[in-house]
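During the no-cost extension, the postdoctoral fellow (Dr. R.K.) reprocessed legacy sequence entries with the updated structure-token encoder. One reprocessed record is reproduced below for audit purposes.
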Amino acid sequence: MTVERPDGSRDEIAPAALAELGDNDNNHLLCLGTADPAVSVAFPAGQLVDPNRDRNPDTQVAVTTVTGPEPHDAPAVTRDRHKQ
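Re-encoded structure tokens follow.
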């Protein structure tokens, strides 16, 4: 994944952990070892399995930050772009 540093530079980092809530959906949490915001996430094919037991395709997504008055606002994935 790519994060943006306070000086505006960007770095590729690996998540500290990958979490699955066991709630039978396609959502997984990437646990980061930094407070720097994510700007993109890429994941190789075949690493995760959805509720239908289908393995994930090679995937890359852009991330945008949602801002608002609430302190719990979090980044949101804007769209999926499967690598060709």
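Residues 76-84 have pLDDT under 50 and may be disordered. The chain has one domain: 2-82. The remaining legacy entries will be reprocessed before the final report is submitted.
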